[in-house]
Specification:
By secondary structure, the chain is an alpha+beta fold. It has three domains: 47 residues, no CATH class; 70 residues, no CATH class; 167 residues, Heat Shock Protein 90, CATH 3.30.565.60. The protein is built from nine helices and eleven strands. It has a six-stranded mixed β-sheet with strand order 5-4-8-9-11-10, with helices on one face. It has a three-stranded antiparallel β-sheet with strand order 1-2-3, with no helix packed on it. Strand 4 and strand 5 form a beta hairpin. It is globular, with a radius of gyration of 22 Å.
Length: 295
């Protein structure tokens, strides 16, 4: 008897006779381009996450340094450490891992603090469309393109979600007037922030999309599930960060917890508000979440 143990490659995908093969169930088949991309993302060493890679054409002048000094650093580092810290901004950014080994800002820095991230990543924006109906062919009531550094996109997104939520009141339901929104703001925030945090930013010009219909809200992002997160364990606390620098920055800025509880919080808020459960659409190149209105 001959037993052969085959260990995973440190640098997938591995090609044999010009092809990459993947195992699907009990069969082998040629990998699709998206499956090859996912294999590349799983490299265990030598390959940095995308948001840690240097942006060769960027300089510190492309970053909002005043925001970093006055808002981000105080949130990321204790006041005592800041008072004792005499390092310049370049050294501080390096300690926060926003500079690559060659001293250039990385994609994480450009996404979080960049004056114009679209200069380097044309798809790094959020497209919001409010439809007057239930299909993509119905008239558009409102549309917004949110771009700029992530902290500005996330702040504008919160405002946009809030003003589009309708609240119904029932003064005869009891001694105190009962007001119930058609969507709980926390659920929409968690799902939209997840889309911004976990999306694929490289090799795509597709934005995060929020399509608001009369009966539902659809939130989608380019890129499927990442790492060990699967359809089966999605929403159970399993988490893997495709963009770890972006995820950490969003945590420091107070938008996410990075503990894998965003989807559970969204589910809880929907149930409490009386909305149907969130529906997920999961494809190799796409992730979507549909939230339906109450009643």
């Amino acid at each position: 008897m001959l037993v052969v143990h085959v260990q995973p490659s440190d640098a997938p995908p591995v090609r044999y006779q010009g092809r990459v093969w993947v195992r699907v169930g009990s069969t082998l088949q040629v990998a699709t381009p998206e499956e090859e991309r996912r294999l590349s993302e799983r490299r265990r060493w030598r390959d940095l996450p995308f948001d840690s890679r240097a942006v060769e054409d960027a300089t510190l002048d492309d970053l909002m340094l005043d925001f970093i000094r006055t808002s981000y650093l105080p949130a990321a580092v204790s006041e005592e450490v800041l008072q004792q810290n005499q390092r310049d901004i370049e050294q501080q950014l390096r300690s926060l891992r926003f500079l690559a080994v060659n001293g250039k800002p990385n994609y994480g820095a450009v996404l979080v603090f960049g004056k114009d991230p679209l200069q380097f990543l044309p798809g790094a924006y959020l497209q919001f469309v409010r439809f007057d109906g239930t299909t993509l062919t119905d008239p558009v009531k409102d549309q917004k393109r949110l771009s700029g550094p992530l902290f500005e996109i996330l702040s504008k997104l919160d405002d946009l979600l809030s003003i589009n939520i309708s609240t119904a009141s029932n003064p005869g339901a009891g001694p105190v007037e009962v007001r119930v929104p058609d969507y709980p703001i926390q659920a929409l925030q968690q799902l939209a922030r997840n889309a911004v945090m976990h999306r694929v930013y490289d090799q795509t010009n597709t934005p995060v999309r929020v399509n608001w219909f009369d009966d539902r809200v659809e939130i989608s992002n380019p890129g499927g599930l990442y790492g060990h997160v699967t359809k089966e364990n999605l929403g159970t606390g399993a988490t893997a960060h495709r963009n770890p620098l972006v995820a950490e920055a969003m945590r420091i800025l107070g938008y996410v917890q990075t503990f894998g509880i965003g989807i559970p919080l969204a589910k809880q808020a929907l149930e409490k508000n009386g909305n149907p459960p969130v529906e997920f659409q999961i494809q190799p190149t796409f992730f979507g979440a549909t939230v339906r209105g109450r009643g």
